[in-house]
Amino acid sequence: MTYCGEESFAGRGLPFTASRSAVKRYDILVYSDGAVTRELFLSCGELALTICINDSPFVRVACSGQHLSYLVPGLLFSCGLIANMDDVVSLDFSSAQGDGNQDEEVWVNVRLRNRHDAARTRGGSTLTITSAMGWTLPVSARRLPRIERPPFPSWDPRIILDAALELDDRSEIFHQTGACHNAALLDREGIIFNCLDVGRHNAIDTLVGYLLTEGLEPADHMIVSSGRIASEIAQKAVRARIPIFASFSRAMSRAIDVARSTGLTLLGNVTSGRMHLYHENGQLKLS
User: Helix %, strand %, coil % for the chain, to 5?
Assistant: First the structure.
């Protein structure tokens, strides 16, 4: 079944979401103090997504199945395969239920305006790109831009702190399952879009895809995430020219190095009323 073809994609229809529950329920056994009892266990649903480019398989990732029409272009952008949505002709989704206990699978065929060889080779071997990517990014995508600092700081830290609390409030599936990552896109008024996924890389790619698809200016937005900030996460934000990245968790050393070399304002340990600034504030209005 085709969910999103060229015509509906051009019309920027509703984001494709797989027809499956975001939360799976299981009857399990619990052993405690020598006794076994039955208990209802809630788990975050996981879906297998295969991305094809011009009919050739490119990559297979595990994801939550939410907001796929944002996740797919965001991932391709992070990989350096597209520069903007003008490079994409269509996204054609199809869904198939797996056999037995297997989760539902979704395939998407991405038509790119310029023909692309999905089987990239390096030294005679196939280069596999996953949603995590990290230092396996193609060289072209590793050439990160410099984030220009505005003449005057324009982000109120209170907006960021309030948004972090709001994102936590919105993270109902995480509080039920403890098994997903949440992320939100902010403008200077607060959250404009939030998403969840089983992987923090997918969550960030979905936000980047939202920016691309909706035609928003990256310099006027920032990200708040629940996951730790590793170098590949910081690279995604810098490549998209998003000036500020904040997280409930901590930054890894390479992520701090990326921020300091590119001008990304990197914030960690964002909790009620406080946060860490890993790089000079640059964008924040501090008293």
Answer: 30, 35, 40
Backbone angles phi, psi at 143, to 5 degrees: -80, 90
What is the distance between the alpha carbons of residues 74 and 237, in angstroms, rounded to a whole number? 11
112-131 pLDDT, tens digit each: 987 655 444 333 334 344 54
C-alpha–C-alpha distance, residues 187 and 102, integer Å? 39
153 to 19, 147, 190, 283: CA distances (angstroms): 43, 14, 17, 4
Cα–Cα distances in Å, from 162 out to 129, 181, 190, 248? Answer: 35, 18, 8, 12
The pTM score is: 0.76
Tell me the C-alpha distance between 272 and 254, whole Å.
26
Could you report the per-residue pLDDT of 213-260, keeping only the tens digit for each? 999 999 999 999 998 888 888 889 999 999 999 999 888 887 888 888
User: Is the Cβ–Cβ distance between 264 and 234 less than 8 Å?
Assistant: yes
